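pls ignore typos typing on phone
2-phosphoglycolic acid + seq
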Amino acid sequence: MGKFIIANWKMNMTNAGAKDFLDEFRPQTKNTVVICPPFTALTTVGAADGFAVGAQNMHYAENGAYTGEVSAEMLVELGVGYVLVGHSERRTKFVETDEFVINKAKAAISNEIVPVVCVGETKEEYQSGKTKDILSRQLSGLGQLDGEFIVAYEPVWAIGTGLVPTMEEIADIHVFIRGITKAPILYGGSVTDKNAGEIMAIPNVDGVLVGGAALCPNKFTGIINAAN
Ligand code: PGA
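k done
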């Protein structure tokens, strides 16, 4: 199986900023590259060649009275092939529950969008040795998914902090998740062009989910090249 290298731009990049990024970004790889820009840049990013476009969020309802939300059908219309669900920032800042996350993943699959189900423990949970309990709970709904999906393991304490678990810890957690699912399992949290090669060489690490380092075309290209 090839690797997945997925960019999560979060609430960064105007449409003009996305165009500037794309002017410099020419990935050369046999692996799967996905960029998840804000909704406002989906059309721009989706029109570029050489990689796929993903959304950072969606609602599970088909349509209706959900002010500010976007449905799977609306994303499909823009050529979106992937969607992040359950990113830790959504779970904490927007109070998304495991059930809500799994419902989004189901709706994505029904619309032939591949959901990237994000999971991970907080610093307190990590320090108290609860990581596997938390992951078991967050992944307990995967059995309800009937179709293609991806899991992204992102320790909350590693996101945007420059902190990364040891390679042994990443290996151990990915073996644990592999025991739960056969789906591709990505690592996310402070991935850079410096550590991506080492991380992607770990067994059961099928790629990376990249935040900050994916905002710079050169750095993101370095991460993509580390998988080649
Ligand atoms: P980071 O973010 O690479 O900036 O740590 C990763 C993420 O939140 O998906």
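The two ends are 12 Å apart (CA to CA). The CA atoms of residues 183 and 192 lie 24 Å apart. more later
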